[in-house]
Amino acid sequence: MRKIYFLFCLISLNLFAQTTDEVKVDLSNPYKTIYTHLHFLQPESYDEAKAARTIYGKSPEKSIEIALKIKQVLDGKGLKVNFKEVPLNAKYKDTVSDGEIKSQYVLFPDRIPEIYLGKVDGKWYYSEETNEKIFALYHNVFPVGTDFIKSIVPGFGHIELLGIELWQYLGVIIFVLIGVFLSWIINKIIFRFLKALESSFMRFSHNSLSKTLDKLSRPSALLIVFYLVEIYIPTLQFQIDINSFLIKGLEIGQIVLWIYVFLEIVSVIIEVFVSYTSRTESKLDDQLAPILSRLLKVLVVLLGVLKMLTVFGVNTTTVIAGASIGGLAVALASQDTVKNLIGTFMIFLDKPFQIGDWIEGGGVEGTVEEVGFRSTRIRAVDTSVYSIPNSKLSEIVINNKGLRQYRRYQTKLGIRYDTPPELIEAFVLGVRKIIEIHPETLTRSYNVEFTGFGDSSLEILVNTYFLSLEWGVEQSSKHKLHMAILNLAAELGVDFAFPSQTVMIEEFPEKKNMNMTYNIESSRIDDIIKSIDKKFK
């Protein structure tokens, strides 16, 4: 029994010795060097002399100081090393940090590129640049007075509660109170500054921007406060886990606030743009405002999400590359959508029409109501709506009748073949006078002429232009013109012909001649022509 007891003790001592000697100083690769440095600075395995062996070319005292400073800087920034990403390869070459391939490994290339390892005589140490810059980095991370604050804390202040000392709880409360006060002060300052800038915006916008500026000043003040808190949070000297949590929370809050601020800036820009475009003649730029607003807001949110991913350690380069490949695949699968989007930009750049223009093209004719991302809505005369893809609309020939200076109207009046020349001339003169005194016709350019002999009528061409470009006003103008022509024809005794055939029989018992009797008395005709002014008005 005694032999078994001694054997058990020997085995226990052997296991204990193996456990204590399990972690040794190893500088064979980046992983081993970083693990050696951080392991021997933990409370349960603290040995600063072993940790200092990761520093090359310095005295033992200086190496210990540098090793401690590196650990404090990483803790103060809340940067925890993810050992799953640290290379185990002793021949590792860095191809990420810069264009030159070197035997080095940068722990946090985006956050602290100055701290990195280098290979010397087959072993990995913290680089000479790290040794030189670590003291400056320490002073940047820990504000002046950090060590003094901890030194004046009384003994009971170091009592821990849930892993946090009492003086640190008090520091958090003080930070919150100061933050609220600074936020209120900075908000007032920023609002007054933006209010002073409002006069510049009022040149383009007649609407007050006070509400929008108030929404913009508050998150801007919080942004400044969050930035200040992030700078001074290391003075509380939390553990790395708590620092990592607080700093990550502050960075997420800053990104959210930046997104909100930029969205409000977009709203201000769009509001000014809408106010400006409302005073321009073009209506197409009015339609551009909502499209531009959506595009800018999507861009702001997208950039914010990419920035947010970096906080969680996601490589944005990989995300962008994946998005590019995915975007290419989506683009190939939806070529029509991409073509329509390009067509939309071409329409806004070329401006072949405006909202409200009457256009004709591709077998469709109507009024442009809306230009969207994908298609354009055109309302026809029968009030039906056509949705034409913008890619097609940007390629077809468009007749923009809304850009006409005048609306042309042309018709032919057919009168009977037996109408005397005197009445034809009087009728032509009368129609010309009607056009001249018509309030909605262009008097300097028109034609009323006896132009030819039709199959069943003498043809008189009427070509004129209406001043109004609106379709409804044009129809009203035609009505007035037609009624005046009919009244003139009735008074002169001019009959309009219709398609017919006349059989002329010179002698027919007990039948009278079919020829009509026309009154061509000159004085009567002159009186009718002179009376047009009074009757038309």
Automatic annotation (TrEMBL):
Bilayer topology annotation: Multi-pass membrane protein
Cellular-component GO terms for this entry: plasma membrane
Keyword Membrane: yes
Positions of the Mechanosensitive ion channel transmembrane helices 2/3 domain: 295-335
InterPro entries membership: LSM_dom_sf, MS_channel_1st, MS_channel_C, MscS_beta-dom_sf, MscS_channel_2nd, MscS_channel_C_sf, MscS_channel_TM-2, YnaI-like
Signal peptide residues on this chain, from the entry's feature table: 1-17
Keyword entries, A-Z: Cell membrane, Membrane, Signal, Transmembrane, Transmembrane helix
Similarity comment: Belongs to the MscS (TC 1.A.23) family.
Protein name, per record: Mechanosensitive ion channel protein MscS
Organism, scientific name: Wenyingzhuangia fucanilytica
